[in-house]
From TrEMBL:
Species the sequence originates in: Paenibacillus agilis
Name the UniProt record assigns to this protein: Bifunctional protein FolD
A biological process from GO: methionine biosynthetic process
Domain of life: Bacteria
Subunit note: Homodimer.
Stored InterPro entries: Aminoacid_DH-like_N_sf, NAD(P)-bd_dom_sf, THF_DH/CycHdrlase, THF_DH/CycHdrlase_cat_dom, THF_DH/CycHdrlase_NAD-bd_dom
Function: Catalyzes the oxidation of 5,10-methylenetetrahydrofolate to 5,10-methenyltetrahydrofolate and then the hydrolysis of 5,10-methenyltetrahydrofolate to 10-formyltetrahydrofolate.
Matches recorded under HAMAP family: THF_DHG_CYH
Binding positions (NADP(+)): G165, R166, S167, V231
Encoding gene per record: folD
């Protein structure tokens, strides 16, 4: 079997076109969705992400504010800015780019973001709402994985989904969202014994372990759908996923490439969360 590619870039583009229409409707009702992104320090990868978020906002007709703060910004100053953005009526979503410098406690900052503007879905209240099944703002990458599966008509209900990785940002939430879609979910991680015995049972395998080319065909049941959330920079400068693409593509039915798979969905879901927050705040 040779896998078909799941083209995240094309799905993201289609979703963005749909969102543009919604933004126009909202604007004619006098509301422009607004996103504030805060970055502290000069981390080059974070700079790239932040610029890309700003560019996407402009492309979709959102109001965008980027706050670039120096590395030595105090926690107190950052909390003050979050407080200002919480109160700002033209801002519907707030994202503080992670990682933050070591002298700032990330949890304190995330906790300070108003939950109705928590477009990252990282606030403990958002996480709690997600677990209960309430209609919260969902974390972007996990929500992107579900969106990609749905847009490729992959049946989730009743299937066995196996997730490799248990991070707060991807592994844990994507497991919950798959369960919410009625999959039977197994979570694996770096300490799982006999991991391949479990992954070989997966109809849907989601890999977010942060190790380049970790999953080869020996982990995969023939015909499985494989979603690679990993983004690893190799010594030669190239990007690689957590899945050995060439090897697994010969055995899986659908497979996401890196780049161009899950990645483009992350910012798209951020835009969707901002739109959702704007609609809710103004209703
Ligand atoms: N850094 C890398 N990915 C993310 C993300 O999704 N949200 C935030 N806030 N920071 C990040």
């Amino acid at each position: 079997m040779t896998a078909s590619l799941m083209n995240g870039k094309a799905v993201a583009q289609a979703m963005r076109e749909e969102m543009k229409q919604e933004v126009q409707k909202l604007q004619s009702a006098g509301v422009q969705p607004g996103l504030a992104v805060v970055i502290v320090g000069e981390d080059p990868a974070s700079q790239v992400y932040v610029n890309s978020k700003h560019k996407t906002c402009l492309e979709l007709g959102y109001y965008s504010e980027v706050h670039r703060l120096p590395e030595d910004t105090t926690q107190e100053h950052l909390l003050e800015l979050v407080g200002t953005l919480n109160a700002q009526s033209n801002i519907h979503g707030i994202l503080v780019q992670l990682p933050l410098p070591k002298h700032i406690e990330e949890k304190a900052i995330i906790d300070a973001i108003a939950v109705e503007k928590d477009v990252d879905g990282f606030h403990p209240m958002s996480v709690g709402n997600m677990i209960i099944g309430d209609d919260s703002l969902l974390p972007c990458t996990p929500a992107g994985v579900i969106e990609l599966l749905k847009r490729y008509d992959v049946e989730i209900a009743g299937k066995h989904a196996v997730v490799i990785g248990r991070s707060n940002i991807v592994g844990k939430p994507v497991s919950l969202l798959l369960q919410r879609e009625h999959a039977t979910v197994t979570m694996c991680h770096s300490r799982t014994a006999n991991m391949k015995e479990l992954t070989k049972q997966a109809d849907i395998l989601v890999v977010a372990i942060g190790k380049a080319n970790f999953v080869d065909r020996s982990f995969v049941k023939p015909g499985a759908v494989v979603i690679d959330v990993g983004v690893n920079r190799l010594d030669n400068g190239k990007l690689a996923g957590d899945v050995h693409f060439d090897d697994v593509s010969e055995i899986s039915s659908l497979l996401t490439p890196v780049p161009g798979g899950v990645g483009p969905l992350t910012i798209t879901m951020l835009m969707q969360n901002t739109l959702k927050a704007a609609k809710r705040i103004h209703n």
